[in-house]
Amino acid sequence: MSKITIKEVAKAANVSISTVSKVMSDAPTISDATKKRVRQVMEELHYYPNVIARSFVQQSSKNIGIVMELKRHYAFLNSHIYEILGGIESILSQNDYSLTLLNPSSLGEGLDPYEKIIREKRVDGLIIHVANLNKALCKKMDALHFPYVVIGQPAFESNLCWIDINNKTAGEIAATHLLSEGYTRPAFIGAPHEDHFSHNRQMGFCSALEKKGLTIDREYIMEGETSIENSGNMMNALLDLPSPPDSVVCLNNFVAFGVIQAIKKRGLKIPENVALISFDNYPLSMFTEPQLSVVDNDVFELGSHAANILLSKIANPNLQMQYSMLLPNLIVRESSRKAD
């Protein structure tokens, strides 16, 4: 079967070739009735326009780049990355955009690789994971007036356009839940203080206690490397206190896993002796014993929102949007639920 041409589509739809071209570009000068008729003919004839050729004419690549680290074993340790990608792709595909992964480890050092990608118009915009963000990169894109959005709240003051889960609110929800269940000595186990992500959740935790008029005991706040082993060590330090906590907010599922191991090795029970709540419903919360209560962050939605914001900025270069926060959701399970 010979390949259908735009000329044949125009003839079948009884319009000019230029009209078909304008329909493919969704030009506002073409009526909805004509667009519908032309698109129906395209579908009947199985005509698929050459996206690359169209993008060359329109000075658009119809391609979005995402700057994200993808190292060995990263899928397990940062499983939310793939949910974010799914959310981004779901929006881009609806708008005839493709997604290109830009791995900083493969691109090389410095800003030159990014500038080359931008100047060659290989992408129309960038989505940057906050873990790969630095001031120099942002300054470069601002100088080039290039559209981008950051996933995650930057650790430095800026006028950047970014989107994130409201981690302070998430921490507050977690602590408030424990207090509402009747626990009176909640602790927090997180990453080192300079970790912006952990710090925001800890701030929310402290805010919840302050709102209830409770004193924040600094002995109950543990900060350190968040491997499963060290999380267990931090939990053991809490259990060794003269008055150990009766509940713990864990930074993530991996911290919670180490905490559970430490509690069980002491012959203690969850939640009878120590209650737990963590963050993110995926990947471990439903497979622990007991199942973990969590403050769930919809990172698929985070990705889709980031894509929508970027497409809006591409369509309207003067759009000013500094940040957007998504609210988390509480899921209560056995690890924190007090027996009646």
UniProtKB/TrEMBL annotation:
Q: Does this entry carry the keyword Transcription regulation?
A: yes
Where does the HTH lacI-type domain start and stop, copy by copy?
Answer: 4-58
- What keyword terms does UniProt attach to this protein? DNA-binding, Transcription, Transcription regulation
Q: Which InterPro entries match?
A: HTH_LacI, LacI/GalR-like_sensor, Lambda_DNA-bd_dom_sf, Peripla_BP_I
Where does the source fall among the domains of life? Bacteria
Q: Which GO terms describe its molecular function?
A: DNA-binding transcription factor activity; transcription cis-regulatory region binding
- Kindly indicate whether the keyword DNA damage belongs to this entry: no
Identify the PANTHER family for this entry.
HTH-TYPE TRANSCRIPTIONAL REGULATOR GALS, LACI-RELATED TRANSCRIPTIONAL REPRESSOR
Protein known as: Transcriptional regulator, LacI family
